[in-house]
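Run log // design_07
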């Protein structure tokens, strides 16, 4: 059971999101690191290709694993079936995505600005915020809301759910929560290489912020994906960046003067 049309659609979305966001992010990263022996254009092309290849691989894995454990992308499937814009499927997912996504966003921002950011080194704050803002709002929505959800929820979470439920024999509810939590931790840890690449020391505060903040919202995204479908997770994740980006822009200007 492998839905080729769904795979192609989701892969195209993932690659498009990466192409929108990553080149500007890489340019900012190279500026922070200093000169490079390789032409910047080649670095951007290589990084975009590598990230796109990984995304397509994870989308393929998710397209195979998701239906085997009851995980779905109903809105995308409806579009592929020719049901117009699939409005009934979108309407069924959006209220929960907006409510829970809003609550998750509020918790994320409170923890970041009240707990973690004040304890981070000034250079770490400045560099990480510059990297995020280098993508712009559209880039952050594309990379976070679309590409990361396709990789970590559709791909990683679906495969983990299949492993622990179908192979490991865990009860479906327990197995799904294991998949949500583990994929959330991996989602958080997956942000650390990018931080290190910017020349930022990986301190305990940085690790805690990456795992706790990303893991927290990943619980929301994962549950929404499980209960409502992929679109709900994408919308909830996009909501984080929609509120976070305007807050970071003035703060980043202050930090980098």
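design_07 sequence
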């Amino acid at each position: 059971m492998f839905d080729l049309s769904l795979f192609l659609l989701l892969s195209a979305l993932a690659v498009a999101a990466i192409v929108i966001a990553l080149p500007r992010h890489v340019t900012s990263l190279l500026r922070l690191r200093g000169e490079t022996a390789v032409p910047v254009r080649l670095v951007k092309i290589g990084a975009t290709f590598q990230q796109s290849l990984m995304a397509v691989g994870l989308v393929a894995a998710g397209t195979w694993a998701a239906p085997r454990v009851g995980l779905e992308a109903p809105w995308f499937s409806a579009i592929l079936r020719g049901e117009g814009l699939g409005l009934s499927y979108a309407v069924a997912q959006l209220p929960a995505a907006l409510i829970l996504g809003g609550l998750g966003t509020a918790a994320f921002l409170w923890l970041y600005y009240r707990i973690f950011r004040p304890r981070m080194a000034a250079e770490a704050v400045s560099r990480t915020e510059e990297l995020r803002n280098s993508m712009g709002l559209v880039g952050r929505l594309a990379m976070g809301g679309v590409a990361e959800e396709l990789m970590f929820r559709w791909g990683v979470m679906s495969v983990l759910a299949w492993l622990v439920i179908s192979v490991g024999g865990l009860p479906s509810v327990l197995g799904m929560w294991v998949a949500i939590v583990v994929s959330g931790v991996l989602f958080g840890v997956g942000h650390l290489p990018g931080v290190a690449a910017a020349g930022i020391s990986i301190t305990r505060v940085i690790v805690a912020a990456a795992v706790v903040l990303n893991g927290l919202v990943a619980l929301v995204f994962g549950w929404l994906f499980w209960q409502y479908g992929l679109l709900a997770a994408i919308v909830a994740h996009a909501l984080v960046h929609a509120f976070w980006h305007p807050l970071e822009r003035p703060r980043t200007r202050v930090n980098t003067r």
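The chain has ten helices and no strands.
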